Amino acid sequence: MIFVIIIFSGVSAQSTASETDSSEAIKPFSAVWRSLIIPGWGQVYQERLAEGAVLYGAGWITYSKAFNSYLSYTRNHSAENKQQLKKNVSLAAFVYVLNIVDIFDSAYRLRPKGWQGALLSDKPLKSPWGAALRSAIIPGLGQVYTENYWMAALYFSGCSFLTYKIYENNQKYQETGDVKYRDERSTYSWYLGFGYLITMVDAYVNAYLFRFDDMMRLTMTPVIFPQGVGVNFHVSF
Predict the structure, then answer these.
(1) Number of domains in the chain
(2) What is the pLDDT of residues 158-178, one digit of tens each?
(3) Which of 24, 65, 77, 172 sits at 20 to 30 Å (Cα–Cα) from 32?
(4) How is residue 210 annotated by DSSP?
């Protein structure tokens, strides 16, 4: 007769706490300096994902419009281009100031605690959507968050190269009007969009499975009983 014995051993409260994010409020400066650099980054760091996504998206759109208006004005110093430049710069500045006001208010008044996950719970150790949004802000940042540093370097380098090729072909198209450069710009833009998507999906999955191997360790040892031989499965988590 063969007996199978399964023994589960749980971790103590102290070790569980060490695997989770800190229960203390996020240090204000840690969130503030991120939003000073990129609108929405500090909000995502605080795990205020909706606010971070909105502010980052608004910042990206208004900054892009302001930059394109600047390029148009440098090529043609018309009054119309100057007026459009002022308008777009004002919108970009408004989004930036709104972002700064929001991050200071949340950091020093609300003092959010960020993501609170744990092993063997409904919430993984790392925030999946937080990781995805980090990689949307800066390609590879979500991988840094999930401690996949080589993948972070790979994604950042790849997306940076594609961004440069888009800029290079756009400049050549503006100078020559050759549709070949316009088509190349479009092709690299599609590549960049696909690269961004892969980076975000990878960050999401890595966050969801962060330290998944630590969740369960299985060891098997033989056990001899008077009635026969058994197998002891020891599952620790």
Answers:
(1) 1
(2) 999 999 999 999 889 888 888
(3) 65
(4) T
